[in-house]
Design a protein that fits this description.
Elements lengths: L1 E3 L20 H10 L3 E3 L4 H11 L3 E6 L2 E7 H9 L19 E2 L6 H8 L3 E5 L5 E7 L15 E5 L9 H4 L6 E2 L2 E2 H10 L5 E6 L3 H9 L6 E6 L5 H4 L12 E5 L2 E3 L3 H11 L3 E11 L3 E5 L5 E6 L2 E13 L15 H10 L4 E7 L3 E3 L3 H13 L1
Parallel strand pairs: 2-3, 5-6, 8-11, 8-13, 11-12, 15-19
Antiparallel strand pairs: 1-7, 3-4, 6-7, 9-10, 13-18, 14-20, 15-18, 16-17
Length: 379
């Protein structure tokens, strides 16, 4: 499946581009969308990495104004740095200076070219080699062989979704639509592609609304609704799974989507011997200022210009062994991280499976919901 940022330039209306030149409003908005993927030829590797971190797509197009000069990916930068390159050097040193592209009137060539050369993205240029569009490719079932792992899935869908008010005053968070279907169905479809067809949905807030919705849906997975009598948190709700599962299972919050290989995730968990594995997203935070380390007598020890801090975030997705349920107190409100700390104190193995932040989509807050919608619509 192939998607454009915009399919064509629209009728020219009065407006200005970023340099102050008068152009059509539609074209101006189009170019602003393209700007998220463009770096100037004068940019350094470090500056380009920041752009790629912000667009979360793992690539950038190197341009001279709007003229396409090259394309650079995460892998290109990593290989260049490993070969002895420096972050402050020009991005042109690491970029592919002969990128595959299609002309504006030859978009039909994009699909076969991307399939043949296994490209995830392809730029569209005009006769002067100026960038006018970008076409993305979504992996399909022909590209990704999804192993049938067939373990149960537990979806925590009982919360009030207070961070998404006022939406959730009317509609429960599990039924909020994202790219045409509810977030819960988005989650079920991703796990269902790996044969996770036994789905337990723990409900509380607006539970009758949620159950009524799915009673009218033709769902290929088997759904089991479990009703909380009171709000028990992400950990306490797991207590309802005692006696219902006798093997490894996935657990996810109802506001999270992952684009990764679930079979590989499960295999890593089993090889680790963990009683629970938390899926974490690796995130880079760029401090937009120079930082100073100060020593004794307030002397400057070192200076770092706009440093990047790397840390791991709990995505709200877990792989759990049934023995972990022994740590869940009966009918007591508790969150899962607290149970993990308890398991660790009792000498149990609790580990992580780390993915890139671009593979994690969260809709827990309004801004994040809009980002999730935008990303799904774009593919």
């Amino acid at each position: 499946m192939f998607h454009n940022i915009y399919f064509m330039k629209q009728k020219v209306l009065p407006g200005k581009d970023a340099s102050g030149c008068r152009v059509g409003d539609a074209v101006y908005n189009h170019m602003r969308r393209l700007d998220a993927y463009i770096v100037d030829k004068s940019c350094s590797l470090e500056e380009t990495m920041k752009v790629m971190n912000e667009n979360s797509m793992g690539f950038a197009l190197v341009c001279d104004k709007r003229k396409l000069l090259g394309i650079v990916t995460d892998g290109d930068i990593r290989r260049y740095l490993l070969s002895g390159g420096a972050l402050r050097e020009s991005i042109c040193r690491a970029a592919n200076r002969e990128p595959h592209a299609v002309r504006e009137g030859e978009r039909r060539l994009a699909e076969p070219m991307m399939r043949q050369k296994k490209l995830a993205v392809i730029p569209v240029v005009d006769e002067e080699q100026e960038l006018v569009d970008i076409i993305f490719r979504e992996p399909d079932t022909e590209d990704v062989r999804k192993e049938n792992i067939g373990i149960p899935l537990v979806i925590m869908a009982g919360g009030k979704g207070t961070r998404l008010r006022p939406f959730t005053d009317i509609l429960p968070k599990p039924l909020i639509p994202v790219d045409g279907i509810t977030i819960t169905e988005q989650i079920m479809n991703r796990f269902g592609a790996y044969g996770c067809n036994d789905v337990y949905i723990i409900v509380n807030y607006m539970k009758d609304f949620i159950k009524a919705y799915f009673s009218e849906k033709d769902v290929r997975q088997t759904l089991h609704f479990i009703e909380e009598e009171r709000f028990l948190g992400t950990g306490g709700g797991l207590g309802y799974m005692k006696g219902r599962v006798d093997g490894t299972f996935f657990m996810t919050n109802c506001d999270v989507l992952l684009d990764c290989n679930y079979a590989d995730m499960l295999d890593a968990h089993r090889r680790s011997g963990n009683i629970i594995t938390m899926v974490c997203a690796r995130k880079n935070l760029v401090i937009p200022y120079g930082t100073i380390e100060i020593g004794e007598s307030r002397q400057i020890v070192s200076m770092t210009e706009k440093p990047t801090i790397e840390y791991n975030i709990n995505t709200g997705v877990y792989i759990i062994e049934p023995e972990f349920l022994d740590f869940v107190p009966q009918e007591e409100s508790i969150h899962l991280p607290q149970l993990i700390e308890l398991a660790i104190r009792r000498s149990q193995k609790a580990g992580t499976y780390v993915i890139d932040e671009s593979q994690w989509m969260d809709m827990g807050q309004m801004e994040e919901l809009e980002q999730m919608k935008y990303k799904l619509e774009r593919f």
